[in-house]
Design a protein that fits this description.
The chain is of the alpha/beta class. 38% of the residues lie in helices and 18% in strands. It binds 1,3,4-trihydroxy-5-OXO-cyclohexanecarboxylic acid.
């Protein structure tokens, strides 16, 4: 069982980026927790971060993994291309967000990704990724 984890734009800045919204945890710390949980659960993970929509589309299209956990970041609200790549790839996808996007500005309330994901986890900081990984594993086990 292999899972691809994708971090979208500006998530490389975690730790210093709006800590009042996203906390002080760095992306490297999040990735370490994801790797630790994956190891504990006996699944393989590959983690990437990109600020580029086309790169994210290509990573999804060319992926060999069985499931996807994605924080599309700002592309959540704009990217038909990432949504279409998820539909085309046909693997269970869990959308995650550090912040509760529904408690923020109105433009963040709309996700183009949520309707094509199995589900969405939003608002639990770093734990959103860990819950997302658990949800993806549980989807694969039911398959
Ligand atoms: C985010 C929420 C998005 O609205 C925002 O553009 C991000 C991060 C989150 O994890 O809370 O970059 O996806």
């Amino acid at each position: 069982m292999k899972i691809l984890v994708i971090h979208g734009p500006n998530l490389d800045l975690l730790g210093t980026r709006e800590p009042e919204v996203y906390g002080k945890t760095t992306l490297a710390e999040i990735d370490k927790s994801i790797q630790d949980l994956a190891k504990k659960k006996g699944v393989g993970v590959r983690i990437i971060q990109s600020n580029h929509e086309g790169k994210i589309v290509e990573e999804i299209s060319n992926s060999k993994e069985d499931a996807l956990v994605i924080n599309p970041a700002a592309y959540t609200h704009t990217s038909v291309a990432i949504r279409d790549a998820i539909v085309a790839r046909k693997i269970p996808t869990v959308e995650v967000h550090l912040s509760n996007i529904y408690a923020r500005e109105e433009f963040r309330h709309k996700s183009l990704i949520a309707p094509v994901a199995v589900g969405q986890i939003s608002g639990f900081g770093m734990d959103s990724y860990l819950l997302g990984l658990k949800a993806a594993i549980s989807c694969l086990k039911k398959k």
